[in-house]
Every structure is written in C-alpha cells, then in structure tokens.
Amino acid sequence: MKPLNSQTMLHLLGACLMTFSLVACASQESLAGAGEACSTSSDCDGALRCKTKVCMTPEDAAWAGLDKFSFFVASQAAMVKLSGHKYGFGGDLRFGETGPGAGLRGADKICQTIAETSMPGSSVKQWRAFLSVKADENGKQVDAIDRIGEGPWYDRVGRVVALKKADLVTTWHRIPTADPAIADDLPNEWGIPNHQPDPNLPPVENHHTLTGTSRFGKLYPDLGIYNPAVQAECIKTKKDSPETYVALLVKEGFDEDYAKKEMVETNEFCAWWARTWHAYNLGEKSDYRSSTCNDWTTSDGDPANGLPRIGMSWPRAEDAKQRFIGHWINVGRSPGCGRGGQAFDVNWDAGHASVGARGGYGGIYCFAVQEVKQ
Length: 374
Known about the structure:
The protein has 374 residues and is of the alpha+beta class. The protein has three domains: 6-63, no CATH class; 70-222 and 287-374, Roll (Mannose-Binding Protein A, Chain A); 228-268, no CATH class. It has eleven helices and 17 strands.
C-alpha cells in the first residue's frame, strides 16, 4: 500500500486505517476538520457508509485527495445555504453574476464554492456545472458534455465516476465505468451517496437533477418543435445504411463506439435529430429556454417560463418487477423553474411549479475539467 503523503493527510483529516478491518472512514464533519472516525468495520453498510461517515479501503484513502476530487452532486444542504433561501435556487443559478451568460457562470461558481467547502484547495480547479444553454456570454450555444474536459473523474473519496467522456453519454441509464458503490446513487460533495445524505434519516426523494441536456450531452431542444417525417427517415437510414447512420452521429460530435452501440440499442438519436434538424434546417426558431429556465436565470414558477430537463442522480423502480430506470442526464422534465422540491415542499401552490416538485430540489452535477491524467 502506498503511504499517505502530506497532501492526502491534509484533506482526509478524519481518515483512519484500521489494522484488522482494513477499512478507513471519515465523517462528513471530520472531512471539514472535526468529528470522529469509525471504530469498527461492522459499522459500514453496503453503500460504504458507517453512521454519518464515508468508508474507504486503505488504498482508496491513500489515493483520495485534491488531485482526484473532480465530481459531485451539489447537495440540498449546500444549495439551500448558498442561495440563502429555504427552497434553494430554483432555476435561477446566477449566484451574483450579471449580464449575458450569467446563469452558466453562476452555476460554475456554485460548484467551485461547494468544492472548496468540502475540500480546501479545490477551488484552484476549473469547476463546471453540467448544464447546457442556448446562449453563453458570446451568444453561442453551449453543450454540457463539451465543457468538462476528457476525464477521468472521481468523487470526494477517490472512487471512479467515469474514465472518459464517452462513458458519460452511453445509451445505458447509468455510467458504465462508475464504481459499483456509486453507479446507482451518485455522491454529493462529501462523497456520500445523495439518496440518503444523512444515514440517520430515511432516504430522500431527491434524484431529479437539472441539466437542460439530452442523453448525448447536447442542449435539449424544446418539445414543441418536432418533425415525425425526419425521425422516420432517420430510422430508415439506420436500418438500410448503418455506415451512413454512424457517420451522421460522428459528424454531430458523438463518439464512434457510442454511435455503433446506439445503432443497435435505441432510436433516441433519431428522436433528438428530428427536433434539432427541424429547428436548424427549416429556419424555425425553437425556444430552447424552456429546457433551461431561460438559460438558468429564472426561478419564476410559471411553467410558461421553463420546463427544465432533468436527469436522475439515482434511478427509480419502474414497475412491480423492480426494473430500474433513470438516465443520469435526461429522464424527463420538471414542471417548472420555481424554488422548491418534493422532499420538503410537497404541496406547492397551483401555478408555482418547482424544479423539484416531482422529486428533487434543483441540484446540479459538478465536474472539474480533467484531461485524461491517470
């Protein structure tokens, strides 16, 4: 086992290497500089928790630290604290920023602030919110997948989230290369799986996470623009000329391996293409803001001002057979951009549709820009 260096020791203040159990644990409090470590490995459950603590193998503890920390789901507690509002930011993520592109810049600043709180020194990294917008400060479309680097990405305690960018836009609902301990419950800034941020309390209905993004990592077009004939032609091309279909996906910026897998498994691309092609090539203006809360600048609860696209940080059971669904980037849309969430605002007023009314609180995914450095 590699010895812990001084940097790792600094950022794992609560870590303990237990001689007999070979498990190291750090409490959420101890990660911030106080608290106590686990006493026995039996305290740790299958989700790598022990009471209010996060558990790691000694090897994980040695590797976890500033160098690796590069992903988290912004927790409800953090969003509430930074927004200064009991219901969080809603769809307005400007966080003090003004002017064109303020929503995206503010969201990045939120990620940076939360990362620094979790692990001092992390703010030196280039943190990016996994969000798409119609227009940045230069008036250009931004796709979430193109703003986070190439990977790999790790959570707060050093577990793999994804090894490369192509892993993030798989047709699978979850990220295939993610550590099994977190693949179905992506962790918050403390490395704690976010479905149950406080292990002393029941799990929270909080999986809906803002993205404004399609499963391919691209800006999600408004649902009002759609051409079924284009979709039908796309599906026909997929069937009759697989090489042409794969070339189309690659031209649109998708990984070739992903394109070949998508060709076999789904028609998701053709549905997306039918909307995007119609908007681009027929000169019709698609109101992309409906999927991004006016590019993350409004918390108005009127659904007319936005129906943000959301992913699931943890999946849900679809039916009695307990088959789980829930794409981490795009599974549907929230009913509005207002502040609130099902976890603590079940009976939201009529006409005030919140970002989390069906199970969330307006959380976002945060990535540090990584460039394939193993």
